[in-house]
Design a protein that fits this description.
This protein is mostly helical. It is built from 7 helices and no strands.
Length: 156
């Protein structure tokens, strides 16, 4: 099996496993702490894959179309998943979510929608380095805007 086919198969398997876990999680009424862990996990996977795209866009990593495509597909596929886990009672525990999320829910949803809209363009953009650079910038702006407004800053 060539490398690209193997990556696609592994990516499809990972996505299927994730979606299976998601549907199982929604079958039972999840506890707020489970929702917090879930959204943190999804954001972690998004962040890891977006970091790959960012490194490629900055020239810190060579452009590899297959790798860019794989990472872009993962970011796009997962982009809608974490935002349903900011429901009532999920402002508990250890996390970096700013309390404004629950007070300004409509504005937070708007920020999430912008991220999802731009993330959906990543797979097509990954086919060309120059287009990828532009789209990584667009997605990065949505991430920064949301982090600036809705993420608790690290204490120094």
């Amino acid at each position: 099996m060539n490398k690209l086919v193997k990556q696609i198969v592994l990516g499809a398997f990972a996505l299927t496993a994730t979606l299976t876990m998601v549907s199982a999680a929604f079958a039972a009424e999840p506890k707020p702490e489970e929702e917090v862990r879930y959204r943190q996990s999804v954001f972690n996977v998004i962040g890891r894959n977006f970091s790959v795209l960012g490194a490629i866009a900055k020239g810190e990593r060579p452009y590899d179309q297959a790798l860019a495509q794989k990472s872009a597909n993962i970011v796009e596929a997962l982009s809608t998943l974490p935002f349903g886990s900011f429901g009532p009672g999920t402002d508990i525990g250890t996390h970096k979510s700013d309390p404004k999320i629950w007070k300004e829910n409509a504005k937070f949803k708007e920020a999430a929608d912008k991220f999802q809209f731009e993330a959906a363009k990543l797979p097509a953009a990954a086919k060309d380095l120059d287009t990828l650079k532009l789209q990584v910038g667009a997605v990065g702006k949505t991430c920064k805007a949301c982090h600036d407004d809705y993420r608790v800053k690290d204490k120094k």
